[in-house]
Amino acid sequence: MHRIVAPATLALGLTAGPWAAPALAQSEVQTIWSCRDKDGRVSVTNLKEDTAGKDCRIVQQTRVNVVPVQKSAAKPAAGFPKENQAARAAAKTRQRDILEKELAAEQELLAKAKKELAAQEAVRSGDERNYARVLERLQKYKDNVEVHEKNVEALKRELANLNR
Questions:
Q1: 46 burial type by CB count under 10 A (0-12 exposed, 13-18 middle, 19+ buried)
Q2: What is the pLDDT of residues 19-35, one digit of tens each?
Q3: Model's pTM, two decimal places?
């Protein structure tokens, strides 16, 4: 239903160079009609030739500016990519070192969390006659252990992926 019109001046703008593009920007009026044919059927169109012989009224009329696209003059730099094999290996080594340090720190936190959980499991205060209260008190320690276990697993996966 919609046509794209490419005037000759617009085509010239693409070959004339970037300095000529603003001068060749064209303004075009786009009109939408609502038409009723002799049988009473209603149709909506933006094509003037579809309005012939029908009772039509303008529904919307807007001005559209058409500007040709300018091609980018950016070219890849000489010697692209800038990273060589030695730099890539050094970056991989640094990444491995960082992951190993994080893994060691996370394993220490996991050991500490497990100790805290074991210490809390051994303690039972007098107001916790109901075992549900004990479980409720211990839940935050269990959650802490679970978080550190998942972090250790994720770091081990990262290291395994890095070694591939």
A1: middle
A2: 444 455 667 778 888 99
A3: 0.48
